[in-house]
């Protein structure tokens, strides 16, 4: 298990070789982070990945957001694929010193997008019934997993930036930077480990408040989310670019 208090930059350097292959926009995004049992997380990881911890503590993130404008390079957005809602359950890992994200699950409300992501990117996507409504400064987000390939998982949460709170870009070496500024994700394809790089502007965040009236996302994957209040941040909109996955071994 890798333990660090301060990371060097998490952005891949040099930039990934070759052209990016896909871009999309993320809005209404919230980071909700809980300290959890390292043992509960490690059982989800490929053997080749190390769990990344902060001061010896493991963290899991629940990340709801709205995706739009998804398109392949040089192509226009496809109407039924370009806009959807997504909910991620993720943790933080390293492979031979390279920091990144490992997704335990990704729920989305588009069947074609779910099947495409499973087939092309080998990511654990699940179909869910989802809704997200804005009311003044609040986002009311609901997700109900309907995909029988995974255990039932339900989330109902309302969140907003704390009124009057200043926005900020996380400083390198801080806890919030460690949680959010990650530009690489890992996944498995049969016996191979794959890495995919992404690129976007630095996160601009605001401390947030949220009400979780239901949340069984951790339970669906045998991960206990403690009763303590999570670390919450609301993000400004992002435009993100993706590079092809590459085989690490």
Task: Outline the fold blueprint.
Blueprint: E1 2-4, E2 22-27, E3 30-36, H1 38-42, E4 50-54, E5 58-72, H2 79-82, E6 84-95, E7 98-108, H3 111-121, E8 125-135, E9 138-145, E10 154-161, H4 175-180, E11 184-189, E12 192-199, E13 205-215, E14 231-235, E15 238-242, E16 246-247
Task: Tell me about this structure.
- Helix content is 10%, strand content 49%.
- With 249 residues, it is mainly beta.
- The chain has one domain: Acetoacetate decarboxylase-like.
- The protein has a 16-stranded mixed sheet that branches.
- Strand 9 (138-145) and strand 10 form a beta hairpin.
- The radius of gyration is 17 Å and the shape is globular.
Features of this protein?
mainly beta; globular; 16 strands; 16-stranded mixed beta sheet; 249 residues; 49% strand; Acetoacetate decarboxylase-like; disordered N terminus; 10% helix
CATH secondary-structure class: Mainly Beta
* Residues in β-strands, percent: over 45%
Poorly predicted parts? 1-8
Quick one: CATH superfamily? Acetoacetate decarboxylase-like
- The succession of helices and strands, N to C, reads EEEHEEHEEHEEEHEEEEEE
Oligomer: single chain
Q: What is the CA-based Rg, rounded?
A: 17 Å
Structural class: mainly beta
Give the number of helices.
Answer: 4
Short synopsis of the structure:
With 249 residues, this protein is mainly beta.
């Amino acid at each position: 298990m890798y333990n660090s208090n301060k990371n060097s930059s998490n952005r891949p350097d040099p930039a990934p070789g070759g052209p990016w292959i896909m871009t999309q926009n993320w809005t209404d995004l919230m980071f909700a982070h809980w300290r959890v049992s390292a043992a509960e997380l490690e059982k989800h990881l490929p053997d080749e990945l190390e769990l990344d911890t902060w001061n010896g503590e493991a963290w899991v993130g629940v990340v709801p957001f709205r995706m739009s404008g998804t398109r392949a390079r040089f192509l226009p957005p496809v109407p039924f694929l370009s806009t959807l809602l997504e909910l991620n359950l993720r943790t933080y890992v390293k492979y031979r010193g390279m920091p990144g994200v490992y997704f335990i699950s990704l729920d989305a409300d588009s069947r074609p997008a779910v099947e495409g992501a499973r087939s092309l990117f080998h990511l654990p996507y699940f179909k869910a019934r989802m809704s997200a409504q804005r009311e003044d400064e609040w986002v009311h987000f609901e997700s109900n997993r309907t995909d029988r390939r995974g255990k039932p998982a339900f989330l109902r949460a309302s969140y907003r930036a704390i009124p009057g709170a200043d926005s900020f870009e996380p400083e390198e070496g801080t806890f919030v930077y460690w949680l959010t500024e990650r530009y690489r994700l890992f996944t498995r394809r049969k016996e191979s480990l794959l890495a995919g790089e992404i690129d976007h502007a630095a996160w601009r965040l605001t401390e947030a408040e949220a009400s979780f009236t239901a949340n069984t996302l951790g339970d669906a994957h045998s991960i206990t989310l403690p009763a303590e209040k999570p670390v919450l941040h609301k993000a400004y909109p992002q435009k993100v670019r993706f590079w092809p996955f590459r085989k690490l071994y």
